[in-house]
């Protein structure tokens, strides 16, 4: 044997986690490093524990299995489990991604494990396609704040501001810092909902209240919640074509 | 067939009216000096009866010209011709009836039918026939309209019935497969629990199937169904789910359509408890107040949850079903109170007649 594999179980039902634990007993080379009962916990643990294998339930409250992958960027060593989700199953079949249908047998479990083992460490491009197909635009943004992980609904964001190497996300009266470029997050957000009004500002159109004159021939956006964001000349043109 | 001809009572009344009409006719003959009272009556009575019968044929004339094929010229032509032909035939009959008497016992004709009298008789018969045509036309139009609405209502009822059938037989596949998965895990962990859960699952489905064949059940039956459902969910949710059922004794025999309460509890778990890390308690209350059955389900919710309430399909379906069953006498409302969600059904508190 080369080395033991580190596995993580993600499922919001304890009995479902128990079943996987039981099936894992005969695989002595697999070391169970953690169990998560929520998607949020999974995002944290995938980051800190860096498991080789993840048994990932799809239907979880707040954060689905697919969202966990989208948020963590994890693309390898994933074995999906699901009871029933017509939409997800269709997507899986379309992209030839393996999944375990609950309830599953030890034999089916072993087969999925063998397949995942063979693919170990290799990034699965099918997962990329699957995640892209399941959610073309971000619905939630993940913020890591030391030990804490915040999930912000994209719809609750007022605006995003670029600051050096990171971005400041203003939502619900708070400001969250995230290491990401503004162009990067702009590409993941629905262009019908978010407009780059300035080199350093991206605003949520749903939160836009008025466009005010600012200075000589400049403009500024007044957002719900009272924030005022400068609008550049190209940003103004972009806004006008959308509204 | 003409509606009068298939109904003896209606026909009798109708002919009686014509018999009475023969009295003024005989009086008119008498006062105009054309006949004596007995001769006038003898002339008018049978002819009135025959006229009464013959104008009924207008029904078939109207039916022969469906509304879709009507053109003004055709209607005028057909109605006019029918009136003239019928009046002519009737006048010939009157002349024959009047003329038969001299041949029989060399007596006098019953009535002195000069040109004026014949003209009046012909015009009267033609007008009556035309009136009958118009009356029948209106009658048929009303009948058609009533039939159409009745058919539409029947179709709607059928469509609804089919929809109900489908809704009832619709079992959440997610619930089924997750429950089976839990049983799978329990077989190793706690075999007795696995057995109990299998039985709860079987009982829940058996009751669901049995109830789907019925239009109304007692609240006690619905609560029994929910108890099996909750027993299953308690095993799946573990310590996260607590349940409090407060069903008043007088509420138990109340009748309601099947599967009214269960979807509310299902929603409470799906949209409430499941999203809370610490879980919470679902409270179900049933009480009768002033003849109304009040059913309430309350559950804690995630305060930050975006969805303000159940705008879902399940609740829409329930509202529609209650509308079909109770018309406007049922009310469903929901509200959010800080971190809890409440839903209340108010239904007429009709009790089962069985003890």
TrEMBL record, chain A:
SMART domains per the UniProt record, alphabetical: LytTR (SM00850), REC (SM00448)
Cited Gene3D superfamilies: 3.40.50.2300, LytTr DNA-binding domain
GO molecular function annotations of the record: DNA binding; phosphorelay response regulator activity
Pfam families in alphabetical order: LytTR (PF04397), Response_reg (PF00072)
Domain HTH LytTR-type: residue ranges: 141-243
Annotated coiled-coil segments of the chain: none
SUPFAM superfamilies xrefs: CheY-like
Domain Response regulatory: 6-117
The UniProt record lists the keyword Phosphoprotein: yes
Name the record gives this protein: LytTR family two component transcriptional regulator
Source taxonomy: Bacteria, Pseudomonadati, Pseudomonadota, Betaproteobacteria, Neisseriales
UniProtKB/TrEMBL annotation, chain B:
Highest taxon of the lineage: Bacteria
Gene Ontology MF terms in the entry: phosphorelay sensor kinase activity
Domain Signal transduction histidine kinase internal region: 162-241
Gene3D superfamilies the UniProt entry points to: Histidine kinase-like ATPase, C-terminal domain
Keyword field: Kinase, Membrane, Transferase, Transmembrane, Transmembrane helix
Residue ranges of the TM segments: 12-31, 43-62, 74-100, 120-142
CC annotations in GO: membrane
Signal peptide per UniProt: none
InterPro entries registered for this protein in UniProt: Bact_2-comp_sensor_kinase, HATPase_C_sf, Sig_transdc_His_kin_internal
Protein name, UniProt field: Histidine kinase
């Amino acid at each position: 044997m080369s080395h033991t594999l580190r596995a993580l179980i993600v499922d919001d039902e304890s009995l479902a986690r128990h079943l996987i634990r039981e099936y894992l007993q005969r695989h002595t080379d697999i070391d169970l490093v953690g169990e998560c009962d929520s998607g949020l916990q999974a995002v944290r643990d995938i980051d800190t524990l860096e498991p080789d294998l993840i048994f990932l339930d799809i239907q979880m409250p707040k954060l689905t299995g697919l969202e966990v992958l989208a948020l963590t960027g994890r693309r390898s060593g994933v074995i999906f489990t699901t009871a029933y989700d017509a939409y997800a199953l269709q997507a899986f079949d379309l992209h030839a991604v393996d999944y375990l249908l609950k309830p599953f047998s030890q034999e089916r479990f072993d087969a999925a494990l063998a397949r995942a083992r063979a693919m170990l460490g290799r990034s699965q491009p099918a997962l990329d396609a699957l995640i892209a197909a399941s959610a073309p635009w971000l619905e939630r943004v993940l913020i890591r704040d030391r030990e804490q992980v915040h999930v912000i609904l994209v719809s609750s964001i007022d605006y995003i501001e670029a600051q050096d190497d990171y971005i400041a996300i203003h939502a619900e009266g708070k400001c969250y810092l995230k290491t990401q470029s503004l162009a990067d997050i702009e590409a993941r957000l629905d262009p019908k909902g978010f407009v780059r009004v300035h080199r350093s500002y991206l605003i949520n159109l749903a939160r836009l209240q008025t466009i005010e004159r600012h200075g000589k021939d400049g403009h500024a956006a007044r957002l719900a919640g009272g924030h005022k964001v400068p609008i550049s000349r190209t940003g103004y043109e972009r806004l006008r074509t959308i509204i | 067939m003409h509606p009068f001809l298939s109904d003896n009572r209606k026909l009798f009344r109708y002919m009686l009216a014509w018999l009475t009409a023969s009295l003024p006719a005989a009086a008119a003959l008498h006062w105009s000096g054309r006949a004596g009272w007995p001769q006038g009556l003898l002339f008018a009575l049978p002819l009135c009866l025959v006229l009464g019968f013959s104008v009924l044929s207008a029904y078939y004339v109207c039916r022969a010209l469906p509304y879709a094929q009507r053109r003004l010229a055709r209607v005028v032509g057909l109605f006019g011709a029918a009136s003239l032909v019928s009046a002519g035939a009737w006048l010939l009959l009157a002349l024959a009836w009047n003329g038969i008497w001299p041949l029989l016992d060399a007596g006098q004709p019953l009535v002195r039918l000069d040109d004026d009298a014949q003209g009046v008789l012909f015009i009267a018969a033609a007008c009556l026939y035309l009136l009958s045509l118009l009356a029948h036309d209106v009658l048929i139009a009303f009948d058609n309209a009533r039939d159409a609405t009745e058919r539409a209502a029947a179709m709607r009822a059928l469509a609804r019935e089919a929809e109900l059938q489908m809704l009832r037989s619709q079992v959440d596949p997610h619930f089924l497969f997750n429950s089976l998965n839990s049983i799978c895990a329990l077989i190793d962990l706690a075999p007795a629990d696995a057995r109990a859960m299998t039985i709860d699952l079987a009982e829940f489905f058996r009751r669901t199937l049995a109830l789907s064949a019925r239009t109304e059940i007692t609240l006690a039956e619905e609560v029994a169904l929910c108890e099996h459902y909750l027993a299953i969910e308690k095993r799946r949710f573990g310590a996260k789910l607590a349940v409090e059922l407060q069903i008043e004794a007088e509420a138990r025999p109340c009748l309601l359509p099947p599967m009214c309460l269960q979807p509310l509890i299902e929603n409470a778990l799906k949209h409430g408890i499941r999203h809370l890390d610490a879980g919470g308690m679902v409270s179900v209350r049933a009480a009768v107040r002033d003849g109304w059955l009040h059913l309430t389900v309350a559950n804690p919710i995630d305060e930050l949850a975006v969805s303000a309430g159940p705008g879902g399909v399940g609740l829409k379906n329930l509202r529609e079903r209650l509308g079909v069953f109770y018309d406007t006498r049922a009310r469903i409302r929901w509200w959010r109170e800080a971190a809890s969600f409440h839903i209340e059904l108010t239904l007429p508190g009709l009790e089962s007649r069985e003890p």
